Structure formats: structure tokens, C-alpha cells
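Sequence, please.
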């Protein structure tokens, strides 16, 4: 059986397009499937619409979270409640085409892959946002030393063995594409053009994208803290040389009077120290979040078909 996990947050304008189109795509693979729609604390009519679809089709399961826990937590809730032999992940804004699920499934079953990632060969929509996303993927691939993640997001399908490995990692601050790559196994990809939203406003704002990018980089790379060390060493050498020059100028009698250079140096060093403290603080914050061991989400109710006993 195939399970597809789709997080939903205030997508009332897209649900009537999303659900029928996704069901049609899944029916091309097999009649026996499970569409898991995770309502991540929507405050519009999204949940009401999802329940209506669930009441008409027993293959749909709706998971209502107690509040908005975030994109990655909603995906995790769906994955942990999926029962399929093959489990897929897809965003709820239809920028990932559900028709591509058939090709992913064929790669898993016929080419013996464990995980198939959807990779974006191009992106439509906001050019500035797409450019920043491309820069993030390049930086993440470089600093995290993960080559198979460039231009790959949540859109993917994996077998039960890979899913079990993925769910065994219990960290609170999580970036699922990175975790999916970390587990290894045989991974393939399917290229596609990422579409622009059909309707509504993007739920993943620039601020949320920045936070997600920070979580990804700080969770999978020591590059930021290593960069601080390198810059600190370079700064030390530069100011040692500057100190030698100042002393030499003083004894030679050609030192220029004035405090501007001193003040600028103090401000420069102070700014560098604040940046370093900020980077260290990011790591300390993530350590703190992990030590709390709070659940990623709470489920308020699950709407699903129950067989009569």
C-alpha cells in the first residue's frame, strides 16, 4: 500500500483542487492507498473541507493537530501515522505535481531504490525567492557535504525500511530533506519544474524560509562555528601585525596622532565578537531544545474510516 503525507495550513482555496487531483494521481499507481492530510492548526475552513472529503472516501485520513506546530512537525506527524509499504511526502500548495508520484513509485519498485527525491530542474514564480532558495541549496550542499540534496525538498517517496530509519532520529530541530539524505540507502531522483502557486498566498514566507535554512545548516554542519574560528585567527594575525607596525611607527617618530583608528578598531572587534556570540548562541539554543525533549506535536483528533468489528 502507498501512503502520501500532505501538511495543510490555511489552504482553503486549494483543497478542492488538491484532493481530487492527488487521489487521481494515486489511483494510477494502485487502488489501495492512504492519503494522510495533516491539518497544522488552520484557522480558516481547511479542516472542515478536509473532513468532508474524508467522509466521502475511506482512503483519506485527516490528522488534526492541536495547534500550528510547523511544517516539519506536521510532516513528522503524518509519517509516524502512515501504514503504507511505500510512503511519500508532498507539500500542500500543488507546487509539487502529484502526477510525478507514479514515476517515483516505479523507480522504487523496478529499479530497486529505497528513496526517490523530487529535484527541481527549474522554478516558476517569485524570481528573488527562487534565487535565494537556489543559493541556500548550493550552500547547504557545500557546507554539509551532502551532494544528493541540491534542489531537493520535501517531495519524495521511500520504502518502509528507509522510513523506519528516518523516524528513528528523534531530534526536535529537524530538517527532513537533510535527515532523509543522512540515512543513506540507495537514493534516486526524478527531475521536475516546480510550479508557482495556483491560488492563495505562500505560507512559507521569507522569514520562515530563513529559519528553516538556519535549522538545516546549524543541524548538519559545523561550518558556522569553524568559520568563526578561522576569522578569529585571521583577525588575531592582522592585529598582531598592526600592533607591530604601530610600535615601530611610535619609536620611529612618524606615528599619526588621533583616535579614529583606535575607535574603528574597537567597534570592528566588538562587532566580530557579537557575531561570534550569535553563532555560538544558535548552537546553544539547539542544544537546549534537544535537552527539553518536548514532543514535536500533539494530535487533537484523527478522522479515518474504521472497519466494523
Amino acid at each position: 500500500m502507498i501512503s502520501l503525507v500532505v501538511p495543510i495550513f490555511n489552504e482553503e482555496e486549494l483543497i478542492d483542487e488538491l484532493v481530487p487531483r492527488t487521489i487521481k494521481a494515486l489511483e494510477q499507481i494502485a487502488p489501495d492507498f492512504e492519503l494522510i492530510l495533516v491539518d497544522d492548526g488552520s484557522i480558516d475552513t481547511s479542516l472542515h473541507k478536509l473532513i468532508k472529503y474524508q467522509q466521502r472516501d475511506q482512503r483519506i485520513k485527516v490528522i488534526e493537530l492541536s495547534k500550528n506546530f510547523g511544517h516539519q512537525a506536521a510532516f513528522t506527524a503524518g509519517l509516524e501515522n502512515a501504514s503504507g509499504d511505500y510512503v511519500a511526502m508532498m507539500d500542500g500548495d500543488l507546487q509539487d505535481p502529484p502526477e510525478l508520484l507514479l514515476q517515483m513509485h516505479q523507480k522504487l519498485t523496478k529499479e530497486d531504490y529505497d528513496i526517490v527525491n523530487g529535484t527541481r530542474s527549474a522554478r516558476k514564480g517569485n524570481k528573488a525567492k527562487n534565487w535565494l532558495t537556489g543559493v541556500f541549496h548550493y550552500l547547504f550542499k557545500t557546507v554539509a557535504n551532502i551532494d544528493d540534496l541540491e534542489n531537493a525538498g520535501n517531495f519524495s517517496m521511500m520504502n518502509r525500511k528507509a522510513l523506519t530509519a528516518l523516524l528513528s532520529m528523534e531530534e526536535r530541530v529537524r530538517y527532513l530533506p537533510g535527515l532523509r539524505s543522512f540515512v543513506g540507502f540507495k537514493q534516486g531522483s526524478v527531475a521536475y519544474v516546480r510550479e508557482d502557486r495556483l491560488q492563495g498566498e505562500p505560507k512559507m514566507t521569507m522569514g520562515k524560509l530563513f529559519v528553516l535554512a538556519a535549522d538545516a545548516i546549524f543541524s548538519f554542519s559545523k561550518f558556522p562555528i569553524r568559520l568563526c574560528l578561522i576569522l578569529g585567527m585571521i583577525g588575531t594575525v592582522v592585529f598582531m601585525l598592526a600592533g607591530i607596525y604601530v610600535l615601530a611607527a611610535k619609536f620611529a617618530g612618524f606615528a599619526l596622532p588621533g583616535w579614529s583608528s583606535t575607535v574603528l578598531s574597537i567597534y570592528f572587534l566588538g562587532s566580530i565578537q557579537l557575531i561570534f556570540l550569535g553563532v555560538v548562541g544558535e548552537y546553544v539554543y539547539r542544544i537546549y531544545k534537544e535537552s527539553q525533549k518536548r514532543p514535536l506535536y500533539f494530535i487533537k483528533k484523527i478522522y479515518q474510516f474504521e472497519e466494523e468489528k
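Strands lie at 2-8, 33-39, 60-65, 86-89, 115-123, 152-159, 187-194, 299-303.
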